[in-house]
Amino acid sequence: MIKQIKNAIIIFAKYPQAGNVKTRLARTTGNEFAANFYKICAEHTFAEIKKIPDNNIAKYLFYSEESEKDKIRKWVGSDFITYAQTGNNLGERMKNAFNKIFKDGFEQVLVIGTDLPDLSANLIKDAFDKLSKTEIVIGPSADGGYYLLGMKKIHNFLFEDIIWSTDEVYAETLNKIEQNKLKSAKLTVLNDIDTEIDLKHWLNENASTGNQFLKSDIKTIYPSNKDIKL
Predict the structure, then answer these.
(1) Per residue in 206-216, pLDDT tens?
(2) How far apart (Å, rounded) are the C-alpha atoms in residues 21 and 35?
(3) Cβ neighbours around 2 below 10 Å, total
(4) Which of 57, 111, 145, 160 could anchor a disulfide with 10, C-beta 3.0 to 4.6 Å?
(5) Fold of 7-223
(6) Among the listed residues 208, 17, 225, 218, the one whose alpha carbon sits nearest the alpha carbon of residue 117
(7) Is 226's pLDDT higher than 60?
(8) CB 175 within 8 A of CB 190
(9) Strand, helix or coil at 83?
(10) What is the domain partition of the chain in residue ranges?
(11) Is the torsion defined by CA of 159, 163, 169, 172 positive or negative?
């Protein structure tokens, strides 16, 4: 770690293998499309993070399985420091990742996922700016979860006694923040796309907003593109 760098970002990612990513989306669109969608979103996430100078943040990628190590490192190259996730559920995995990075001496740490097509470098910068003025920063997703969480020191209780992958995750997390009298800031709501309904909502109802270049790319591979209005 370079001593003057105080900020770090953690990306949680999987290798985009058909059948192993976006399984809820794959139920109606097929494994191949779901994997391609995930790959496009993940690489968009990587690109946005790489826009932030290396002397501003340290960039970490925690992949889901130890067996993915070689594929992940070949995929992302040397732009990210890579580690395997550890833990029995999403909460444990995030908690363990935060603990590891804080032990390296960082003062502000964010964690994000890789299925957010509207994520931007400016939003990440805004998250760090907000975090510098408070104790917790959180980015709510439209499905009731959150796509980003940032803190200045580890608060293990934020990852405990929560039923993950439900529409109550964000509300339960806010409740824990309030119960423990922590100051927090909220980011803009983004679409975390898990199902084909989520995808169609993003492509159709939000047609005038979001990442138009990414929408165009996804429309070209979407197997039901006849139902998508440009």
Answers:
(1) 555 557 778 88
(2) 6
(3) 7
(4) 111
(5) Spore Coat Polysaccharide Biosynthesis Protein SpsA; Chain A (3.90.550)
(6) 218
(7) no
(8) no
(9) strand
(10) 7-223
(11) negative
